[in-house]
Amino acid sequence: MRVHQYTEGEVRSFDVEPTERLSDHLVFAEESILFLVSEEGQPVAVDVRFEEVILGGSGAFVTHKHPTIEVVVHYQGRAVQFEVSPGTRVDSVRERAIRDFSIDATDAADIGIRVLGATEDLDPSLPIGHVVHAHHKIELELVAMVHPQG
Amino acid sequence: MIATVNPNQERVELDLLEPAFLDGVERGKWRVVGLQWPYLLVGIAAGDGGELGMRIELDQFPTQAPAGIPWILDEDRASTINELPTGARAERIFRSGWSQGHEWTPYMASERLVTRVNEHPEWQQMYPSRAWNVSRHLSFYLEQLHRELRTCGIPVVAR
């Protein structure tokens, strides 16, 4: 199976046997915590086998120094704040913010998420712990997608 | 005889293994049906649970953006008007004017034919979050299309 490991600022990709243990391949910095990249981003033990945590043909992990990330999301002059795991995908953060702002499904389909003040939307597959690097807090904004005309 | 490696195909094959692409596969956003160079056949999930087939030409990838047209995967042919996505926002990317004249090419800033035919080099500056550039991966194009299909349905056509 194909495995990706996000650290603070880089990503490594490699193939593993399902029966191998995480500790056989994943690299850890001192005092870092290992998380599965998913909707919840739950922490995982390093001595389990890949097949115990990856259900499909590929999976991703992120290591981070903090157990939670404080997220502030801005939208149309308002802000919501919540905590997520560093392993939580950007897409899940977006969905949580859309719920908190009570944005209806039709409008939500046209909304992306980016770092506050940035010009590009974030890759929805990234773990939020990879986006914040070594920090434990990040400010994001929901932005309506533009549709080029002409 | 020395085997030659097509650098564009090599890059595509690498992109099929990059994290965002595989994440999309695992989460059911899209699936690969086959790579018949220079075409990639994929299915992309729509909002109603249906799937839009696409044939994506990648001969100049990533220097040039992907060039996709809707495709009936099990019959290996281009989609007709009755087989296109439906819904209030479908017309936004499958335009009865422009797209119809270009095999129903989706009207997106990440689509090769749109930028080439309409000559919109300024879109890279005007729409940096949506336009194609050489640093993009294949998953970017698929994500853009998947986003557009979130509120669309795929008609069930008797054949």
Can you give keywords for this protein?
heterodimer, A: 150 residues, alpha/beta, four-stranded mixed β-sheet, 4 helices, 8 strands, 15% helix, elongated, B: 159 residues, alpha+beta, five-stranded antiparallel β-sheet, 18% strand
Question: If you had to describe this structure to a student in words, what would you say it looks like?
Answer:
The complex is a heterodimer of chains A (150) and B (159). With 150 residues, chain A is α/β, with parallel strands linked by helices. Chain A has helices at residues 50-53, 90-100, 105-108, 128-131; strands spanning 2-6, 11-15, 33-36, 58-64, 69-75, 78-84, 111-115, 137-144. Chain A starts with a strand and ends in a 6-residue tail after the last strand. The longest helix of chain B is centred in the C-terminal third of the chain and has 12 residues, at 138-149. Chain B is globular and about 50 Å long. The N and C termini of chain B lie far apart (47 Å). At the A-B interface, strand 1 and strand 4 of A face helix 2 and helix 6 of B.
Please summarize what this structure is.
Chain A has helices spanning 50-53, 90-100, 105-108, 128-131; strands spanning 2-6, 11-15, 33-36, 58-64, 69-75, 78-84, 111-115, 137-144. By secondary structure, chain A is an alpha/beta fold. Chain A binds chain B through residues 2, 4, 6, 11, 13, 37, 56-60, 89, 105-106, 109, 112, 114, 119-121, 123-126, 143, 145-148, 150, and chain B through 17-20, 22-26, 47, 89, 92, 107-109, 118, 120, 123, 126-131, 139, 143, 147, 150-151.
**Measured on Cα atoms, how large is the radius of gyration of chain A?**
16 Å
Low-confidence stretches of chain A: none
**Order of strands across the biggest sheet of chain A?**
2-1-4-3
What is the helical fraction of chain B, as a range of percent? 25-40%
Largest sheet of chain A: 4 strands, mixed
First-residue to last-residue Cα separation of chain A? 44 Å
Number of strands of chain A: 8
Helix coverage percent of chain A: 10-25%
Mean pLDDT of chain B: 91
Question: Distance N terminus to C terminus of chain B?
Answer: 47 Å
Strand-pairing-aware structural class of chain A: alpha/beta
Q: Strand percentage of chain B, roughly?
A: 15-25%
What is the radius of gyration of chain B?
15 Å
Strand order of the largest sheet of chain B: 1-2-3-4-5
Structural class call of chain B reads alpha+beta
The greatest interface here is: A-B, 30 and 29 residues
